[in-house]
Amino acid sequence: MGDLFQPTHLLVLGVIVFLLFGAKRLPELGKGLGEGLKGFKEGIKGVTEPAHPAAQPVAPMVQQQPAAPVQPVSQPIEPK
């Protein structure tokens, strides 16, 4: 499977694409592919980064009250 992208294979594939689409259509296909990749990258960038980082509200600092101390049991429980 590693032999799939040998230079001769890529050359043959390029010739087949050239014969199928012709010299006039290849620049159009390349331009369309480039614009599609650019749009895809912009879409992915929008997912990974927040849209407006300054618009996110900041939670105020809240001080917690200390927990009440545990009261010891007045009479120890004896095993039966």
Integer average pLDDT? 78
Q: What's the number of helices?
A: 1
Number of DSSP-assigned strands: 0
Helix/strand-derived category reads mainly alpha
InterPro entries: TatA/B/E (IPR003369), TatA/E (IPR006312)
Subcellular location: Cell membrane
GO cellular component, one term: plasma membrane
Membrane topology: Single-pass membrane protein
What does this structure look like?
The chain has 80 residues and is mainly alpha-helical. It has a domain at 2-50. It is built from one helix and no strands. The protein has one helix at 7-48. The chain is elongated, with a radius of gyration of 34 Å. The mean pLDDT is 78.
Summarize the structure.
The protein is mainly alpha-helical and 80 residues long.
Task: Provide the descriptors you would attach to this structure in a database record.
mainly alpha, transport, 0% strand, TatA/E, 1 helix, cell membrane, transmembrane, transmembrane helix
Layout: helices, strands, pairs:
Layout: H1 7-48
Membrane topology: Single-pass membrane protein
Organism: mine drainage metagenome
Region (Disordered): 50-80
